[in-house]
């Protein structure tokens, strides 16, 4: 995969009803696990062809200890990798973060275009605008958390929130 391929992939915005499951205030597209809170997961719709896709979200820590996003899984992909985008000699490149991504105590991490992304490798189905992508994040200490990124337009560079009407998994608020 090259950087161009990578840049075409992204995520939709919106978390699944994890907050509700945990008995926390259910903000439609936010989620919480342990002392970490996340917001606005989103993916970019995938163009015809291709076998990858990418997702984004923000993570905020209210923990006194360092946390680490170590991986993610999704039924729509053979596997999900955490990638960093960097510029080398004027060209965008991406590399896998084999040790995951640290979330410092009280820190804030943005997984967004041009920086980090969660990459769907061996994608099994298209990511269609308005749909939610099942995605589970693995946080080293806090555990697993389901997030349901909403798929935005193929050219989107940030979440719009449009998918909120449909709700996580497309039916939460129906
Ligand atoms: Cu990538």
UniProtKB/TrEMBL annotation:
Annotated segments matching region Disordered: 152-174
Residue ranges that the Swiss-Prot or TrEMBL entry lists as coiled coil: none
Pfam families reported in the protein's UniProt record: PCuAC
Name this protein carries in UniProt: Copper chaperone PCu(A)C
Species of the source: Methylobacterium variabile
